[in-house]
Amino acid sequence: MQGKATFAGQPVHPMLVTIPIGCFVAAVAADIVSIWAGPGFFPEMATWLIAFGVIGALVAAVPGFVDLLTVPMSPSAKNLAGWHAMLNLAVIIVFGLAFALRFGHYGSGLGYALTALGIVVVAVSGAIGNRLAHRHLAGSSEGDLATTRSTQRGVVEPDSRVAH
């Protein structure tokens, strides 16, 4: 179930996405603080967090794309992976636009709005990525394939998660 983008037997994409997700969430937190703190440090910090998040997302996209092409998946998992990839591309575009609007004008209202939209798209894409990893076992080692999992909807047998 693992793709070609691994390091020491572990998939690389999930390791790398923590950086842009952390940057984007911290940018939203800085935006919220800036409502009370006013212009200055926090809006500028949010802008630079967005820039680092976009760079991190571009780096994480490389092994993610390799996995998209090389992880054996069922048709439903492949469909979810396609949506996950498209939403992540949208995240890069939305946050890239937010950075462009905010750079030099840190308090841009449209920049704030794009940041808020971007974090919503990150949450949806993350939920899909979670489903790929935990229900469809995309990126899991072969030992996980024999494991029966319990979910909120009941027991999920290994055969229902993988391509035959």
Task: Put the structure in a nutshell.
The chain has 164 residues and is mainly alpha-helical. It is built from 5 helices and 4 strands; from the N terminus they run E-E-H-H-H-H-H-E-E. The chain has one domain (6-160): Four Helix Bundle (Hemerythrin (Met), subunit A).
Shape: elongated
Name the CATH architecture: Up-down Bundle
CATH class: Mainly Alpha
| Structural class by helix and strand composition | mainly alpha
Q: Flag low-confidence runs.
A: none
Largest sheet: 2 strands, antiparallel
Order of helices and strands: EEHHHHHEE
> What is the number of helices?
5
Tell me the radius of gyration: 18 Å
Describe the structure.
By secondary structure, the protein is mainly alpha-helical. The chain has a single domain (6-160), classed as Four Helix Bundle (Hemerythrin (Met), subunit A). 66% of the residues lie in helices and 6% in strands. It has a two-stranded antiparallel ribbon. Strands 3-4 form a two-stranded antiparallel sheet. Helix 2 runs antiparallel to helix 3 (41-70), helix 2 (18-37) runs antiparallel to helix 5 and helix 4 (75-102) runs antiparallel to helix 5 (109-134).
